[in-house]
Amino acid sequence: MRWPSSKNPGPDSQSGVNYPIDPQDKLPHAYGGPSCLGVLRKVPDDFRVTEIPLVEPDGHGEHCLLEIEKCNQNTESVAKLLARHACVRNADVSYAGMKDRNAVTRQWFSVRLAGRSEPAWDDLNSADLRILQAARHSRKLRVGALRGNRFCLRIREFRDGQGRLEQIMQSLQAGGMPNYFGAQRFGREGSNLTGAGALFGGVRGRLDRKRRGLYLSAARSMLFNRVLGIRVSDGTWNQAFPGERLILDGSRNSFVPEMIDPVIMERLADMDIHPSGPLWGTGYQSTNTESAALEQRALHGMEGWQKGLERSGLKYERRALRAPIRNLTWGLEGDDLLLEFSLGKGSYATVLMREIIATG
């Protein structure tokens, strides 16, 4: 992945927006870096993803929930196909999460029919798409309405050159992984960050809502990754500082404990709670805590990005620095490594894989 260089501050060098960004592959690793080699996604079937839904169809209402298996298609192209087939607006089709094109993925869509007759969904079945189930539901499926994703991966031509696979896997199983945003968040060759820099510098024309959202999310994610990278380097990404806001696992709920007592330490060890990092926006309140000082150090020189996000109206939030890895299993099949695991929503399988293998 090629990133904008700090030597080229972007379209408007007077805007205060520049690109002092480390490449994604230079972000610190939690467990010493990958010691294995392998080929990921040689064919789509090597990367299987199944969405873990937050809701089940209730059997009535003007929406139809569809579970679809797809490959060689992205989520948006399937959504548009559903809209055409049902003769509804694109806005009447929604989904909980985006899924990769170069993978075999199972995910849920909702289609608002609003008095229209239900089409023959099975007519859409093809070599690259299958309707697994369809049922009525009373509410639209919202973005983020999922618990997480289950993964089944095959890494071909696997080589454990240093004999560290078991050690790394057991560390991941016990301690989780840094909750970095994956490289796909930033677009091909960092294009979403380039767009965000132009947006903040005032040199980009009118953007549609989706494109603007991609740029803002990329900028916010880059700042978060910088903070998390410092915490990984310091060995504090899985520890709590006094006065730091902690996030409940699998939830947006958070709290600031009065002290880091044995109960808090036990909950951290059990991965019931996690330390957090900033998703930048308006409403940030500076504190005199050690974690706040670390974040200020990590974001030094990034004021243009911070101000751009604030002007864009995003609200300041927190995100867990750590992601548990559930139901993790691994084993060899010939020259291939097989992995199965589950991640909560918003966490990336590619981030897990960078702790294990250097892809070839």
What would you say this structure looks like, in words?
Mean pLDDT is 89; it is low at 1-22. A hairpin with a 5-residue loop joins strand 9 and strand 10. Helix content is 26%, strand content 27%. It has helices at residues 75-86, 165-175, 191-200, 209-234, 262-269, 290-298, 303-311, 349-356, and strands at residues 36-40, 47-53, 63-70, 93-95, 104-112, 129-137, 146-160, 177-178, 246-248, 254-255, 273-279, 317-320, 322-323, 326-333, 336-344, 357-359. It has 8 helices and 16 strands. The chain folds into 2 domains: 1-47 and 148-360, TruD, catalytic domain (Pseudouridine synthase); 55-144, TruD, catalytic domain (Pseudouridine synthase, 2-Layer Sandwich). Strands 1, 2, 3, 4, 5, 6, 7, 14, 15 and 16 form a 10-stranded mixed sheet that branches. A 4-stranded antiparallel sheet has the order 10-9-11-12.
Estimate percent helicity.
25-40%
Euclidean distance between termini CA atoms: 14 Å
Beta strand %: 25-35%
Q: How many domain units?
A: 2
Main beta sheet: 10 strands, mixed
**SS field, number of helical segments:** 8
Structural class: alpha+beta
CATH architecture of the largest domain: 2-Layer Sandwich
Number of strands: 16
Order of H and E elements:
EEEHEEEEHEHHEEHEHHEEEEHE
Overall mean pLDDT stands at 89
Please name the fourth-level CATH homologous superfamily of the largest domain: TruD, catalytic domain
Cα-atom radius of gyration: 22 Å
Cα shape = globular
Provide the low-confidence segments as ranges. Answer: 1-22
Provide the CATH topology of the largest domain.
Pseudouridine synthase
- Which CATH C-level class of the largest domain is it? Alpha Beta
